[in-house]
Amino acid sequence: MGNIAAIPKCFYCQEDKNEILIAESLRTDMSVYHMKVCDIVPCANCEALMGRGVILITVDGAKSEDGWYQPRYYNKRRSSDPDVLIPPNPYRTGGWFVVSDDFVARAFDTISEQVLRYRWSFIEHAAAEHLGLFAESERMNKEKEKNA
User: Fold this and answer.
1) Prediction pTM value
2) Count of helix runs (H) and strand runs (E) in the chain
3) H/E/C letters for each residue in 100-133?
4) Which stretches of the chain are DSSP H helices?
5) φ, ψ (nearest 5 deg) of residue 9
6) What confidence tens digit (pLDDT) does each residue in 9-31 have?
7) DSSP for residue 70
8) Which residues of 53-78 are buried (b: 16+ CB within 10 A; e: fewer)?
């Protein structure tokens, strides 16, 4: 018998979620879910940030597996089982930003409506650099330290 509970990670910020997954049966080993991303439901902090802006997560498409951006589903045991979407898992480069809706409308142009609806998006690391996200983040952090 393994663990009967697990603490999952948030898909967006990769921090521990403030929730516990409990096994339906004592024979179920929940250790495979412990400290793993299990869904794309945001943690409370990310949900609050999505209420104020849009989360952008930097990735490197060249280091990501082929087709990482295409929807994938868990293998179903029976045809009657519901489809469960596997969260995309590109190679994350560490950039993580919350930007305004206005910024998204200007920067994403043709897909801005979709990004605004879901309140998050992956963005190529080089594109984030080109848009000045890293420089602005560094400037804001220095200003915050100066005022602390």
Assistant:
1) 0.84
2) 5, 7
3) CHHHHHHHHHHHHHHHHHHCEEEEEHHHHHHCCH
4) 44-52, 101-108, 112-118, 125-130, 133-147
5) -100, 155
6) 999 999 999 999 888 777 778 88
7) S
8) bbbbbbbeeeebeeeeeeeeeeeeee
